[in-house]
Amino acid sequence: MSAKQHSTLLGKVLVALKYISLIVITLVCLAPIILAAVTSLKSKTEVYDLGVLQLPETLHFENYITAFVDGNMLNGFKNTAIMVGVSLIFVILNGTMVAYILSRFEFRGKNLLKNAFLFASLVPSMSVQVMVYRIISALGVYNTRMAGFLLYIGTDIIAIYIFMQQLSTISVSLDEAAIIDGASYFTVYRRIILPLLRPAIATMVIIKGVGIYNDFYIPYQYMPKNSLRVVATTLFQFKGQYGTQWEVICAGVVITVVPILIIFILLQKQIYNGLIQGSVK
To answer: How many CA atoms lie within 13 A of 243 on its CB side?
Structure first.
């Protein structure tokens, strides 16, 4: 066999391995969702009598009704939407303003402030939870939505660095030209900087929005009141309320996946563009 044939054969093998690895990774990612979907259509008896991926004889869609109605998931979706919407607005405003100041202005202590943000992002969040809990309690916002807002808005250091990276690609001459024409610094931020940061903003909306939607710890730890339950903590209550009724729990899991799946299908082009254009160099 010639060297050229060896090279062609090796190329085909590498391509085959690439697709095999992609298929395996896809199956690994989809396996929990498929398992939850199959289990959600079984009766309580079938959950224990049938195989994990074995389809039930009769589809039990009443599990979804039980999960949605008895679990009060509508309230969970409402609270989650409020948390995601308000938090994203302030994360974007806070992150873009801080990034604008650190990128465009020179002042004493600027490098120290940057290093402080970097150090804060490297500290494991679990190691400071005792102090965070004491601060939230001292502020009198424990068991209120404000506790979640403060934690989601005030702890996103990564957003500042993503916006700073995007700002480094925007010419300073745009700011200078606007200031010469009489624009204030706030006008420059609002009319020039903010619109040009749209790719990075799209990235943060995706990353932060999905993170808040899936977050369990902060709502469970700082907002335990029943009326403040979000999607994640609404699912957790099935453990105590329904014991080992996994078919109802899995139905709730599938219900929570559907909104994110619909959003992804409708906005997948914008999501990919935002991740590519808003990523760091």
So the answer is: 2
